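ligand=N-hydroxy-L-asparagine
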Amino acid sequence: MKRRTFIQNASLSSLGIVAAASVIGCKENEIVKGGATSNNSESTIPVVIATWNVPNSTKKAWEVIENGGAALDAIEQGCMVEEANAEGQSVGIGGLPDRDGNVTLDACIMNKEGNYGAVVYLQNIKHPISVARKVMENTPHVILAGKGAEQFAYAEGFQKENLLTEASKKAWEGWKKTSEYKPIINIENHDTIGMLAIDKNGDISGGCTTSGLAYKMAGRVGDSPIIGSGLFIDNEVGGATATGLGEEVLKTVGSFLIVELMRQGKSPQEACEEAIGRIVSKNKDFKDFQVGYIAVNKKGETGYFSIHEGFSVTKHSEKENINIPSKFFNKA
Ligand code: SD4
């Protein structure tokens, strides 16, 4: 099949993302209850929580908050740690490229006032989370894309950098031999950062930063920089952020949904479970892709839930900086 035909035929459900063997054979459309851990129902303020195993990022964010800093600064600095980590292949420098070999980054940030800034399809800039913050603070807009975002970043003093590391270039060259679009659940996407923080004043901010899905089509933008999908904050209620197959998060406006469910009285855990339930009940192919959500409410209670096993969160509270495996929907 010619590549063009392949792309046309590749509906989201047929992208061929491989599910872990341990998750086959679940009961469809049944939400697994009892997902909350003791860490979840505990009210902890301040708190920092992020998708995946990113202890250095949560540690940095926590340090900012511990020193009396605002949640917004904690989010930016925490996310920057992973963006600068060249070994992480799904965010910032070292991110896996699109199928043409270009590393294109998506990021957004949202503050306690409900202000928001984002960059999509940004190239050659290591810290998209910081450019997103500049969009929020220094422009009359909320999203800048592609070349315009890049020009804006240079005008704001950011340096041009080559983001394609040797390791990611090698991986891409290996992928090109078959050009099959088959990312593997939890493997290639393990360190995209969605981060939520509550500072000592009890104010909430959040951020999300990613290189998106490896070997995506040129021009593709995921959920991560889109308000309400990859991230949403309402300082009176709480915040939520997402990771995984962005197309499915976008179609259900997942993070906004979770915050609205919390507004209606659900706990962060219940809200994350319902948002995952929304995806799986609408999509019989959910065995082929992963989505994970994390949430925090105004009381400092947290929640996290995913479709499949393998998702985890890193949570920094007064007590500890700990990586916690998430409960998941798709029980064997
Ligand atoms: C995307 N949601 O671009 C992102 C990818 C991701 O962990 O989160 N990976 O669809």
